[in-house]
Amino acid sequence: MKGRLIFSAVALMLIALYLKSCFPVGFSYKPFLYFQQNQQMRREMKERHKDLLYFHQTLLRIKEAVPEEVMTYMEVIPMRYMEAPQTLTCKDLMYISGLDFIGSGFTKVVMKGTLLNGKSIALKSVHGEGNDMKQCVQQYGDHSACHRLATYKLQKEIALLQILRHPGVIQLHGQCYVNSAPSDIRVTAMLELGSPLEMIQLLQTPWEERFKICWELVQLLHYLANSPMGSIALLDFQPRQFVLVDGSLKVTDMDDATSEEPTCRQDKDCALAFPAKTFNITCSKTGRCTGSNEKRNLYNAYRFFFTYLLPHTAPTALQPLLQDIMNMTGDLHIGINDTVKAFEDVLHVYKSGMNDSHVHNLHDYTVLKGYRMNGTDGEFRCWPSYNHQGCLLSVHSAAEAAQFCNARPQCRNFIISEQRTWTGRFLTSFTKNSLQLVEDENYSVFVKRSGHSDMQEG
């Protein structure tokens, strides 16, 4: 057991050395005695410590009370006081390889590492040279104490991830706490690895994929509004707080989340202010701005996601429904429950083919079942497309594909595959030239008959 702890400490030391090479040390460590003499720092430490303990005891429903003597000194809540099981531990961290820097924020730094089984994970720890630490050290002059304050944020996030079990929340694989490790990586969260959410890239994807992102966000917000901890607000609601894991949206930064709704004495105390709008919320009899967390999340979803991703190149048949969603969420005329229902209505219409009634279009094509065309026709492109080097779209049926091809004079063929998108629509390639045919039972080739008069695009 002692040997394992030594190896864990060595592994964490290596991570610390890597971080130090990325972020040169700019602070001088001050004696802990300075912290004891700094009454303001001590008060803030005590307040955050009590908040963290209260958070664990009430929100994580810890069955065993934490002894008072433990509460006084411990920096991290021991795992025996937690309910959620851990998959990865410090032992797994010993064998991490291929460390690489992913990014850093106000409080934390994120690394990428590979486990012994070859799986890549994200490693999140306190950013010793981040702005949070810099501002704290500038104010209090005590690096060690400031690191403890920053650690509470990471511990809060770990606690949240242990109880918030939803596909839209990044998965916590485990955590490691080694008291003898350098302060920057004394606490390490081991998380599911995702890729950054790039809005510019999303705007270049087909509408169906952009709708998927918004739909997954709405489902996440519905969960947060009805979570086991009550209604949770993401106070730092930005696209950079989200990642994509296998194409699905997940929130990855939770240290600024809160389940507390603002206190109030009168309605004006509940004003929900944004750069472009301010919303009025009624102060409840309990002295809380009830519903403000849900409204904050929903309006942020509207201004950061819906505005850019929903209307752009949307199918004509869906535009009235989407415009209703934009109007209602942009003015907060509906809550998250009605927003979920509105998205479900859009999804139903889209999956049903949007009143597909173009079967007669297929009369203009010869069908070759069990074949596909070898290669991609780069001379015929459409946008947005699943393949930027050609024209690859999703269709509800062959009739819809024929309608698209007929409306474009350069389109001469389309190839429907058995591969489907998340809504069940068929991935279909459109080409200008007839390429070499290859036998493949998962495809069907539709060739426009000679002499066919194309419709004008409109």
From TrEMBL:
Instruction: Quote the InterPro entries the UniProt record gives.
Output: FAM69_kinase_dom, Kinase-like_dom_sf, PKDCC, Prot_kinase_dom
Cellular compartments per GO CC: extracellular region
A GO BP term here is: skeletal system development
* Signal sequence range: none
Molecular function via GO: ATP binding; non-membrane spanning protein tyrosine kinase activity
Q: What is this protein called?
A: Protein kinase domain-containing protein
Q: Which Gene3D superfamilies match?
A: Transferase(Phosphotransferase) domain 1 (1.10.510.10)
Q: Which organism is it from?
A: Engystomops pustulosus
Q: Which superkingdom, per the lineage?
A: Eukaryota
Q: Where in the numbering of this chain does the Protein kinase domain appear?
A: 96-366
